[in-house]
Amino acid sequence: MTIGIIGAGLTGLTLGSLITDCEILEKDSECGGLCRSIAEDGFTFDCCGSHIIFSKDKEVLDFMLEKLGANIVKRRRNTKIMYNGIYVKYPFENGLSDLPLTDNFECLMGFIETLTNVNDKPGNFNEWLYYTFGKGMAEKYLVPYNEKIWNYETSKMGSFWVDGRVPRPPVEDIIKSSLGIATEGYKHQLEFYYPKEGGINALITSLERESRAKIVKNFDVKSIIRENHNWVISNGIEQRRYEQIIATQPIFDLMYAIADVPPAIYNALHELKYNSLLTVMLGLNVENLNDFSWLYIPDGDCLAHRVAFPSNYSEDVAPDGKSAVLAEITYNNDDSIAKLSDEEIITRTIEELDKKGIIDKATVCYSKAVRTKFAYVIYDLSYKKNIGVIMSFLNHIGIYPVGRFAEFKYLNMDACIRNALDFTKELNK
Ligand SMILES: Cc1cc2nc3c(=O)[nH]c(=O)nc-3n(C[C@H](O)[C@H](O)[C@H](O)COP(=O)(O)OP(=O)(O)OC[C@H]3O[C@@H](n4cnc5c(N)ncnc54)[C@H](O)[C@@H]3O)c2cc1C
Question: Which of 8, 42, 272, 408 is the most exposed place for a label (fewest CB within 10 A)?
Answer without folding.
Answer: 42
